[in-house]
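Lab meeting minutes (informal)
Scribe: AK
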Amino acid sequence: MSKLYEFQSKKLLKEGGIRVPAGDVASSPAEVREIAQRIGKPVVLKIQVWLTGRAGLGGIQFAETSEEAEDAASKMFGMKVKNFVIDKILVEEKLKIKSEYFAGLVIDDSKKSPLLIFSSAGGTGIEEIARSHPENVSQISIDVLTGLREYEARNLIRKTGISGKLLLQLSDVLTKFYKVARHYDARSAEMNPLVLTEDNLVYAADCHLTIDDYAVFRHPELGIEVAREFDRPPTLLEKIAYQVEEKDYRGTFYFFQMAEEVSKDEKLIGFHGAGGGGSMMSMDAVLARGFKLANFCDTSGNPSASKVYRASKIILSQPDIRGYFASGSGVASQEQYHSARGMVKAFHEEKLSIPGVIRLGGNFEEKAIEILGNYLKDIPAKVEGYGRRDSPEFCAQRLEELIKENQSACYEVKSVVDPALPPNCYFFETLTGKLAIDHEKCPDCGTKGCIEACKAEVLKLEDGKPVLSVSPEEAKKGKCTECLACEIFCTFHEQDAIFIHLPIPGLKEYREKIIKKNKA
């Protein structure tokens, strides 16, 4: 689930007609002071993180004046709170609270419906309140076809002992709360505390929404960059990786960085899995050898060779790794030669200087291992391919042995070099890239093996040269599967006349930052 910050959630509530404290989000102490001056009353400062218990972490401070607010903010910005470095603070009017309540909405998978929970006692520890004072808590399953009706909201609140005008105020808030959550496809939403002030007005004093990952595309206005559940803001490399996943529907590509800052003395490994359970076993095998993982990566669900290629390039954008370890379930129902070709292309472009062990168990694993063996002989480091009969523990041991044999320095991230294509080459667009053929080299080709290599049959010979056998529109829509077979055959067996350009937006700039940082 994709989490929203408190200030984002409150903006949605306000637009939905729910009262929230006056305030705004700040990115510097000076902005905090300006906002506090506009409010003109005592304020509360709240760090913006996806965590509960902020008060106990020093993340909530009160200030009577704008000067006090600025001073408090100067101490809060830059704080390290678990996995967050504080760069946003919500500045709000300090409410005069008479009483607190709780309202939460979750998707009840067992009943396949939203579940709304209300408590007449708000604040922390709603689970304990439900156990010790069940009379204060009530809940209702909501029919998604009708939504939450006014009388249902009133009955829900009435069960906790609330009546009169407050009952009407709260029921109005709950019906609006449900509509906001429903509109934005929230998997969970919470107002805690929902408060009654001394002037008898109901406010959402705190609020958090999490959006269903699969619905994020419907809400670009929310600005969610990575539709994944994180316990910290996504890194720049994770954002780059997510764009690859988002723009290519073929298979899954999940990438999560686990060690951004490491010592060169650490045994850091770039990890490339295939399938959740098998990847976990493979990671355990690597960790048991004393290695540390730079990342978790999963390319499964029968990904295209181009997707695996991009995954490998992103993994190899992490400095100081000492080896590349790819291993999954061992029985993956996907054509493993696609993964092999993707890695071959990436490793050759990178001139891989660290050893790798690639365990590709599953469909056509023998062919995949053969591809790795045939086409990775000439890169600087040794890469070995294995199949399902080779355990993750054995493969991790081989990686450790290869690293000791290699005695190489840590991996150095290289600049992304744009391909130098001949000006008059034949080319066509593919689903996520561009395929170029230097026809001037084709007359010297004795096999025309690219035609045989193309199992999708999108290439044909015309005057002894490979050209499209389908329309450019069909090729771009996915008829060309970007299997990389034609390029690999031509590169290693013939004239090196075919190149498939598979851009990764943002990676070139990211690597330049890494290179500049390492030189500093």
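Next up, CB showed the second protein from the same session:
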Amino acid sequence: SIIQPDNWGYKPVHIFAQEGEHWTKSLDNLLVWLSWLGDGRFERARDIVNQRVFRGTQKFLKGIRKSPPQAIVLNGKETHSLDKLSSGEKSLVQLFLRIGTHITRNSILLIDEMDVHLHPKWQHRLLNILKGLLKDHPGLTVIATTHSREILRAFAYEIKEEGLRKGGYIIEKDLD
């Protein structure tokens, strides 16, 4: 069982949704709990975020501050909290923290409307991160839905990419 460290004085909110007033607290809460578990999940999730989401930037998810309990991002020489990230970065950090926490040898990842609320720049980054994960974890299966023709073209079945097995269906319905 999980026991709250006495010296942190932190009460979890158990809300891990992206939307709403508790977004940054809930993401911090997830990271704090992962850190408390001490079973390697925090480190695995942090590494996926740093290697995938923050790749090519000066940002780096450093760790957890005890007081107040929150995740710390290193940006160049400055540190800041998660709430200073852009909304696209927050969305990707949240998604890949969860993936990093739970990924196993033969995971199935379901993502509903993966492009929702993401700027095209972040949609492309998401696609590249997912493709990298699929190549690095051959047992990983991703099933995703989207309304974006651009994403469909990027994952086109006809385009062969080494290390990726593609399949699926495009379901279109005229709403006229």
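CB comment: The CA atoms of residues 113 and 146 lie 5 Å apart.
No objections, moving on.
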